[in-house]
Write a structure and sequence with these properties.
By secondary structure, the chain is mainly alpha-helical. It is built from 13 helices and 2 strands. It is 58% helix and 1% strand. The radius of gyration is 26 Å and the shape is elongated.
Amino acid sequence: MALRRKHSVERTGVELLRAWAAASGGAPVGVSGRLRDAAEDLAIAADRRPGDLVAAASRFGWQAGDDGWPLAEIARWLETLARISGPSGKGLLTYEVAVALSAGWADGFLHGASRDAIAYARKVAEAEINAATDNPLFFPGDETPPLDHEFAANWPAGYDGRERISYSAGNFHGEPVGMAADVLAIALAELANISERRAQMLLDGHHNRSLPPNLIPHRGINSGLMIIQYCAAGIVSENKVLTHPASVDSIPTSSNSEDHNAMATIAARKARTVLRNAQSVLAIELLVAAQAVEWRVAMEIDPARPRPVASTDWEQANREAEQFEERTRPERRQEIAEPLGEGTRRLYLQVREAAPTMLRDRMLEGDIRAVLGLVAGH
C-alpha cells in the first residue's frame, strides 16, 4: 500500500509536470515560430527559486531534446549565461502573460511555484507513509521505564502505571495530509489555468500571430477547436470551486471528544478530481498546439506578417481548405515535425498518432480522451 501511495504521489507531480513542460514547450513555437533567445536566459538567471529553474530547464529541454538536466548543472549554465549573454533584440517583443509566465522569456515563474508546491505535498505524503499514525501507540518490550513512572505521586487510587505500554497522542490526526492535499490541488489547478490561457491564445485570431481563428479552414461554417476551449474553460472553473481548502474546516464528533477534525479525506478526494481535470485541460492544449504547429509550419505562416483581413471569397476559402488538407496528410507529418525541437517533434508525432488533424467540424470527445491517455500515462 505504501509503495502504491508513493507511486501515486510521484505520478501526480512528475508525470503531470512533464506533460506541462511538453505542452508549454510548443506554445512559443505555435505563437511566434521561435524557441527562445538570450534575454529569456537572463530573466531566468535572475530568479533563484529551485522550482523555477527546473521548470525552465524542463521546457527548454523539450524544445531541444533533453528533459533530464541536473539542477546543479542548470544553475551553472544559467549563471554563465548571465555573465556572457545580452538581450538579442530578436523576435517579437511582447508575449501574453500566459506565455511569459509559463513558456516564454520568463519561463517557469508560475509553474516553478507549482513544482515547489507539489514537492512539498510529496514530502508530507512520504513522511506520513513512513510514520506511526495509530492511536494509541504500543511499545511492548521497551526497556525504557514508562513515562507514567515519573508521575507516580499523581497516580489516582487503584492505578498502577508501572506496566503501561500504550500511549495516546496526536499521531492519528490528518491535518498534515489535509493541508498538503489542499496545496497540491491549488498547484494542479494553476497548471490547468495557465494551460487553458495558452490554448485560448492560440485560437484567438487577435493574439495568435496571424494564424487563422480557431485553427480551421472555412471559418464561420466550421467552429474548429473553439468548442474544446469551452470545455477547458468549464473545467478550470470547476477547479476553482474544488480548490477551496477542506483542511480549514472542522466539525466536532464522538460526543465532542474529537473536537477538531482535519477533513483530509475530503481534501484528498478533491485533489484527485483536480488532477484529472488538469490532465484533461493539458490534453486539450496539446490538441490545439499540434493544430497550430501545422498551420504555422505546413502553411508557412510568418508570425511577423500583418494579420490578414477576413475574406468572404468562397473560392479562396476552398483553395485554403484543400491546401491545408493536402499539406497535413499523415504521410507528411515527419516533414511538419522537422523544424521543431527534438522533444516537441516527438510530442507532435505522438499527439497526431492519437488524434488526426481537424479539417472540418467533428466530434472531438474521442480525440481528447486519446490524448488524455498520453498525458495520464495510460
